[in-house]
Amino acid sequence: MPRILLLASLLLVSSAAVADEDAIKLKAGPGHDQVLQNCAVCHSLDYVRMNATFMTPQVWDAEVQKMIKAYGAPIEAGDAKIITDYLATQYGVPAPAPAPAKAGN
Ligand code: HEC
Protein backbone atom coordinates (compact mmCIF):
# COMPACT_ATOMS: atom_id res chain seq x y z
CA MET A 1 0.00 0.00 0.00
CA PRO A 2 1.40 3.45 -0.78
CA ARG A 3 2.72 5.01 2.38
CA ILE A 4 0.41 8.01 2.30
CA LEU A 5 -2.69 5.84 2.14
CA LEU A 6 -1.54 3.77 5.05
CA LEU A 7 -1.00 6.90 7.10
CA ALA A 8 -4.43 8.23 6.18
CA SER A 9 -6.14 5.03 7.26
CA LEU A 10 -4.23 4.97 10.54
CA LEU A 11 -5.41 8.49 11.29
CA LEU A 12 -9.00 7.51 10.59
CA VAL A 13 -8.81 4.56 12.94
CA SER A 14 -7.24 6.48 15.77
CA SER A 15 -9.69 9.35 15.67
CA ALA A 16 -12.63 6.95 15.64
CA ALA A 17 -11.52 5.02 18.69
CA VAL A 18 -10.25 7.40 21.32
CA ALA A 19 -9.44 5.15 24.21
CA ASP A 20 -6.60 7.10 25.74
CA GLU A 21 -7.70 8.86 28.92
CA ASP A 22 -5.41 11.79 28.17
CA ALA A 23 -7.34 12.36 25.00
CA ILE A 24 -10.64 12.76 26.83
CA LYS A 25 -11.18 16.47 27.09
CA LEU A 26 -14.35 17.95 28.40
CA LYS A 27 -15.66 21.26 27.15
CA ALA A 28 -14.41 24.41 28.83
CA GLY A 29 -16.87 26.29 31.01
CA PRO A 30 -17.73 27.14 34.60
CA GLY A 31 -17.49 23.93 36.63
CA HIS A 32 -15.06 22.20 34.30
CA ASP A 33 -12.34 22.06 36.95
CA GLN A 34 -14.70 20.68 39.59
CA VAL A 35 -15.75 17.90 37.23
CA LEU A 36 -12.14 17.03 36.48
CA GLN A 37 -11.30 16.95 40.18
CA ASN A 38 -14.35 15.03 41.35
CA CYS A 39 -15.53 12.82 38.54
CA ALA A 40 -12.39 11.16 37.25
CA VAL A 41 -11.49 9.52 40.55
CA CYS A 42 -13.38 6.27 40.01
CA HIS A 43 -13.99 5.99 36.29
CA SER A 44 -13.30 7.53 32.94
CA LEU A 45 -14.54 11.01 32.15
CA ASP A 46 -15.86 9.40 29.02
CA TYR A 47 -18.88 8.38 31.09
CA VAL A 48 -19.94 12.02 30.94
CA ARG A 49 -19.73 12.18 27.17
CA MET A 50 -21.26 8.76 26.57
CA ASN A 51 -24.35 9.69 28.54
CA ALA A 52 -24.73 13.24 27.26
CA THR A 53 -27.19 12.45 24.49
CA PHE A 54 -30.09 11.77 26.83
CA MET A 55 -29.29 13.60 30.06
CA THR A 56 -31.73 16.31 31.08
CA PRO A 57 -30.86 18.65 33.97
CA GLN A 58 -33.00 16.53 36.29
CA VAL A 59 -31.29 13.33 35.26
CA TRP A 60 -27.82 14.84 35.64
CA ASP A 61 -28.80 16.01 39.10
CA ALA A 62 -29.95 12.50 40.01
CA GLU A 63 -26.79 11.06 38.49
CA VAL A 64 -24.50 13.28 40.56
CA GLN A 65 -26.53 12.48 43.69
CA LYS A 66 -26.21 8.78 42.88
CA MET A 67 -22.44 9.08 42.59
CA ILE A 68 -22.41 10.69 46.03
CA LYS A 69 -25.01 8.60 47.87
CA ALA A 70 -24.75 5.21 46.22
CA TYR A 71 -21.08 5.16 45.29
CA GLY A 72 -19.68 7.39 48.02
CA ALA A 73 -18.14 10.11 45.86
CA PRO A 74 -16.68 12.66 48.28
CA ILE A 75 -18.20 15.73 46.67
CA GLU A 76 -19.23 18.75 48.70
CA ALA A 77 -22.74 20.09 48.26
CA GLY A 78 -21.49 23.35 46.76
CA ASP A 79 -19.38 21.52 44.22
CA ALA A 80 -22.20 19.14 43.40
CA LYS A 81 -24.38 22.08 42.37
CA ILE A 82 -21.60 23.56 40.23
CA ILE A 83 -20.95 20.19 38.65
CA THR A 84 -24.61 19.55 37.92
CA ASP A 85 -24.97 22.97 36.29
CA TYR A 86 -21.89 22.34 34.18
CA LEU A 87 -23.07 18.92 33.06
CA ALA A 88 -26.58 20.12 32.26
CA THR A 89 -25.22 23.06 30.27
CA GLN A 90 -22.38 21.37 28.41
CA TYR A 91 -23.51 17.76 28.20
CA GLY A 92 -27.24 17.83 28.60
CA VAL A 93 -30.38 17.93 26.57
CA PRO A 94 -33.41 20.08 27.43
CA ALA A 95 -36.07 18.68 29.73
CA PRO A 96 -38.10 16.18 27.73
CA ALA A 97 -41.27 16.69 25.79
CA PRO A 98 -43.90 14.14 26.74
CA ALA A 99 -42.73 10.71 25.62
CA PRO A 100 -44.35 9.43 22.45
CA ALA A 101 -46.83 6.64 23.06
CA LYS A 102 -45.14 3.33 22.49
CA ALA A 103 -47.95 0.88 23.03
CA GLY A 104 -50.52 -0.06 20.49
CA ASN A 105 -49.28 0.93 17.06
C1 HEC B 1 -16.68 7.07 44.37
C2 HEC B 1 -16.49 6.69 42.99
C3 HEC B 1 -17.18 7.54 41.93
C4 HEC B 1 -17.06 8.89 41.73
C5 HEC B 1 -16.20 9.89 42.48
C6 HEC B 1 -17.91 9.21 40.58
N1 HEC B 1 -18.49 8.06 40.10
FE1 HEC B 1 -19.66 7.90 38.44
N2 HEC B 1 -19.82 5.90 38.72
C7 HEC B 1 -19.28 5.19 39.77
C8 HEC B 1 -19.68 3.79 39.67
C9 HEC B 1 -19.27 2.69 40.64
C10 HEC B 1 -20.48 3.70 38.52
C11 HEC B 1 -21.21 2.47 37.98
C12 HEC B 1 -20.31 1.36 37.62
C13 HEC B 1 -19.57 1.58 36.36
O1 HEC B 1 -20.22 1.55 35.29
O2 HEC B 1 -18.35 1.83 36.38
C14 HEC B 1 -20.54 5.04 37.93
C15 HEC B 1 -21.21 5.34 36.77
C16 HEC B 1 -21.34 6.61 36.23
C17 HEC B 1 -22.07 6.93 35.02
C18 HEC B 1 -22.77 5.94 34.09
C19 HEC B 1 -24.22 5.82 34.36
C20 HEC B 1 -24.52 5.06 35.62
O3 HEC B 1 -25.27 5.62 36.44
O4 HEC B 1 -24.02 3.94 35.83
C21 HEC B 1 -21.99 8.29 34.86
C22 HEC B 1 -22.62 9.14 33.76
C23 HEC B 1 -21.20 8.80 35.95
N3 HEC B 1 -20.80 7.76 36.75
C24 HEC B 1 -20.90 10.14 36.13
C25 HEC B 1 -20.15 10.65 37.19
C26 HEC B 1 -19.96 12.06 37.43
C27 HEC B 1 -20.52 13.18 36.59
C28 HEC B 1 -19.18 12.16 38.54
C29 HEC B 1 -18.74 13.44 39.25
C30 HEC B 1 -19.84 14.19 39.84
C31 HEC B 1 -18.90 10.81 39.01
N4 HEC B 1 -19.52 9.93 38.16
C32 HEC B 1 -18.09 10.49 40.10
C33 HEC B 1 -18.46 5.70 40.76
C34 HEC B 1 -18.08 7.02 40.89
From TrEMBL:
Organism domain of life: Bacteria
The Cytochrome c domain, residue ranges: 26-105
Matches recorded under InterPro entries: Cyt_c-like_dom (IPR009056), Cyt_c-like_dom_sf (IPR036909)
Keyword annotations from UniProtKB, A to Z: Heme, Iron, Metal-binding, Signal
Signal peptide positions on this chain: 1-19
Molecular function via GO: electron transfer activity; heme binding; metal ion binding
Name of the protein described by the UniProt record: Cytochrome c domain-containing protein
